Amino acid sequence: xxxxxxxxxxxxxxxxxxxxxxxxxxxxxxxxxxxxxxxxxxxxxxxxxxxxxxxxxxxxxxxxxxxxxxxxxxxxxxxxxxxxxxxxxxxxxxxxxxxxxxxxxxxxxxxxxxxxxxxxxxxxxxxxxxxxxxxxxxxxxxxxxxxxxxxxxxxxxxxxxxxxxxxxxxxxxxxxxxxxxxxxxxxxxxxxxxxxxxxxxxxxxxxxxxxxxxxxxxxxxxxxxxxxxxxxxxxxxxxxxxxxxxxxxxxxxxxxxxxxxxxxxxxxxxxxxxxxxxxx
Length: 280
Known about the structure:
By secondary structure, the protein is α+β, with helices and mostly antiparallel strands. Helix content is 26%, strand content 32%. The chain has helices at residues 2-24, 42-56, 64-71, 162-181, 184-187, 245-248; strands at 59-60, 90-91, 94-103, 108-117, 120-131, 134-137, 142-145, 205-213, 220-232, 249-263, 266-274. The termini are far apart.
């Protein structure tokens, strides 16, 4: 009896131990949970740094006081009024966009913004301090190049269906004229039945269908087209300016991808969207 009692105790303890370990695995280990957010107001810091960059990267030696006044809301009390500028030369920058934020703690961060001055793109890193709902620039910014354009490899040579391209050209010329006008009745003559497309309602005018590219295929194909639109600078030009078309219109080439379908010897547009890569 003593031997059987000992065996029962051993079996019970052996079963209970792993159950207790599994149940304890869901319990806290004693370490407090780590907060998921830093507590630093990143969106507001980005706006503050972008506004500072506008004041900081624009200066003119003939009007140094203008820059000093623009910088005042961003600098700590007692900071040098021009904040590193020697008072010479001229610089104009704009097109400021957020690049990223490196949060150090709840009160400190480094905000990097993109900027453009002429043909040069920059990155400006701005250290900022946050307290009681307000920001201040806490150190000298760091200006870095933003890099030039990426190296674009050449496109592979693709086959063209010259016959289809020649068939498509007159159809697409008429389609793009109707697309520019935005007349639903006109458009319906060149699109698949049941498909509805919104046109430009006369806000652009087709100058030329520059190119049509069609790959070999069947009755339904994805093709590309390049057109040249004119865009009125002034939607309601004065009578005096109406004789000078160069003064109130501008031309711009645009690339499109179209899904077309051949029915009864004619090609019809099923869909139109922006083009993909065309630059060689």
